Amino acid sequence: MTGRNILILTAVIIVSILFASGIVLATPPGKNVVFEPKGADKVTFDGKTHAEKGLKCNDCHTKIFPMKKSAHGTYKMEKMNKGESCGTCHDGKKAFATSDKESCVKCHKKPA
Predict the structure, then answer these.
(1) How many alpha carbons lie under 13 Å from residue 59 in its C-beta half-sphere?
(2) What is the pLDDT of residues 15-61, one digit of tens each?
(3) Helix (H) or strand (E) holding 28
(4) Which of 18, 25, 27, 103 could disulfide-link 31, Cβ–Cβ 3.0 to 4.6 Å?
(5) Where are the beta strands (DSSP E) in 1-110?
(6) How far apart are CA 38 and CA 88, in angstroms?
């Protein structure tokens, strides 16, 4: 086996381990991530919309959001309304508030 083949094999193994453990970039810039919270309509995070507001991925990752896919199920409205996760920016000052009942439909979308 050549040095190049060993390097490729090593890279494949590392990427496989990261995918298996959930430690991967969930969404490339400009793409969407869909969350399906229990008891609520799904939420689609639109990377493009946030980028158009001047935000970069590392503004939130890993300062506010961990880079583990398994962590996405832990976002709760009660915590957001207290300024955690999405509520860090969606506080009614920097962006619409997570606690604003009229803004729910901006994130939570009913299935088509």
Answers:
(1) 12
(2) 666 555 444 444 565 678 888 888 888 888 888 888 888 888 888 88
(3) none
(4) 27
(5) 32-35, 42-46, 108-109
(6) 22
CA distance 76 to 60: 17
CA-based nearest residue to 73, from 43, 95, 104: 43
Query: What's the whole-model pTM score?
Result: 0.65
Token duo for residue 67: 């880079």
pLDDT at 106 over 80: yes
Q: CA-to-CA distance for 42 and 22, rounded, in angstroms?
A: 21
Q: Are 27 and 33 in contact (CB under 8 A)?
A: yes
> Across the chain, which distance is largest between two alpha carbons, in Å?
62
Rounded Cα gap, residues 69 and 72, in angstroms: 6
